[in-house]
Every structure is written in structure tokens, then in C-alpha cells.
Amino acid sequence: MARDKTLIVGNWKMNLDMHEASLYVHQLAKLVKNHRDVEVVLAPTALTLQSLSLQVNYRQFKLAAQNFYWRDSGAYTGEISASQLRGIVQYVIVGHSERRHIFHESDKDIRAKVQAAIRNHLRPILCIGETAGERADGETHDVLHDQLIGGLANVTSEELEQIVIAYEPVWAIGSGQNAHPNDVSAVIRTIRSQIKHLYGPRAADAIQVLYGGSVKAESASDYLALPDVDGLLVGGASLEAHTFNDIIKKAHKGSSLAKNIEGGL
Ligand code: PEP
């Protein structure tokens, strides 16, 4: 997907049961106006994915899995594979900091998941970000570099086109302490220059990069106005349909504003 489309992803984490999820989608579907310049992606729990896949109009919303196992099938009790998610979701979240830190997922696991997603024609949203300690020690760039190399090893230039990167500083996730837009801009420029080093200037320019970390309706525009930011990964503020719709509306405004500026209006 080209960068002219703003991506707004709602990560519900382990919230909303089947009934609440269905009600939410019903409400959001009534609120959200379809815009060609905004893609809205919902990442509910695995439990509700199948029923929501029957409820959503894929032209209005896409679905994402929050997690999956990298093997396609076999004796892996409790797991769901990317091949089983095909036809239900279009995106998968990979390397979220809660998976890295609570469930101890390594770069090797994350790399295998990126490969499994690509193999199954699902778009991986690869999350990378530094902890507060790493930031304080001035290690942000090195950490992001290692996470990029770790997640993208074995990904070809052609496959890279399917990948979305989400910059999510760990200290900003769920903390109410969102990163300053100037800092986000600087870090995302670094991410693009690391991609340039790995895949060349065209890939660096083409790759979609999102920001995530305590985004609220009030702060969404501050990030969406940044030329290097192509969308948002939203946790807490995506849990209520009206609030999430407020963010989606900002994305539409953000896209048209950017286009107007580009078009010299
Ligand atoms: C997330 O879960 O990816 C996230 C950014 O959460 P929050 O918006 O609640 O910080």
C-alpha cells in the first residue's frame, strides 16, 4: 500500500468480549465515513476475529491479529497460525513490546513470524521501540537498528513492500506519557535512514511508518501532521468507538491537509 493512505490501527489487546466487540463494530461502522485516503484496521482478540470477519465490511475496516505462531500447522497446543488467519485478517501485529517483554519473544521469534506472515500474504506491522532505560542511556538508535535487523533479516526488497513499521517507544505505551512529536519525527527519520542503508533510498521513501504510544484524539493530529508519519497504532484510545472515530476523523483531515500542502494549495 502506498504512503498516500494513512493507516489507523486499533489494538484492543486483551479487552472486549464477543458481545462487546460486535457492539463496538456495529457502532463504529455507523460512525466511520469511508475515505479513500484512510485505512482503518481493528486488532481484536483472537477469540472474536472470526465472528467479526463476518460482520465487517472489508471496504470499511480491515482486521489484524495481535499474535500468531510462526509454524503453519502441527502439534503446538494453544497456538494459531498465520495460514489459519488467511481470509480472516489482512494484517498481523508482530513484535509488540508486550509480546517482547511479557512473553519474552526474541528477535529470532519475531523474524520467523514476519516470514510466516509474508508467506501467507498477510501484512506484518513490525513494532520496534526503546525502553525508558535504553532511552536514558542514549541507546535508542542502536536498539531500533538491532530490532529492524532482527525482524527484517531474510526479507527481500520486494517483500519489504508488504511490511509496515510501527515506532512505539516502550515507555509511552499505556503510560499516558506520549512521545514529543519532534522526537518521533527525528526517530522515524533514523528508521528511514536505516532502511535506506539496508534496502536503498526508494524502499526508505516507500515504507509506511506508524507512531504508537498513548495517542489520544487530542494528540493524534500532532503526529499525523509529521511528514514522516504514515499513521497511528492506538491501544487504550481505540477501545471506545466514539473516541476511536475521533482519531480516524483526524487522520482524514491530516491526509487532506498534507495533500493540500503538497499540491501548493
Ligand atoms: C499499543 O498497544 O500499541 C499502544 C500504543 O497502546 P496505547 O495507545 O494504550 O499506549
Structure in words:
The chain is of the alpha/beta class and 265 residues long. The chain has a single domain (6-70, 77-262), classed as Alpha-Beta Barrel (TIM Barrel), CATH 3.20.20. Helix content is 46%, strand content 15%. The chain has helices spanning 18-31, 46-55, 82-85, 97-101, 107-119, 132-136, 140-152, 157-160, 181-199, 201-206, 217-224, 241-262; strands spanning 6-11, 38-43, 61-65, 91-94, 123-128, 164-167, 208-212, 231-234. It has an 8-stranded parallel barrel, surrounded by 6 helices. The chain is globular. It starts with 5 loop residues before the first strand and ends with a helix. Mean pLDDT is 94; it is low at 259-265. The structure holds phosphoenolpyruvate (PEP). Phosphoenolpyruvate (PEP) binds next to strand 8.
Summary, kept brief:
The chain has 265 residues and is of the alpha/beta class. Strand 7 (208-212), helix 11 and strand 8 (231-234) form a beta-alpha-beta unit. It has one domain: Aldolase class I (TIM Barrel, Alpha-Beta Barrel), CATH 3.20.20.70.
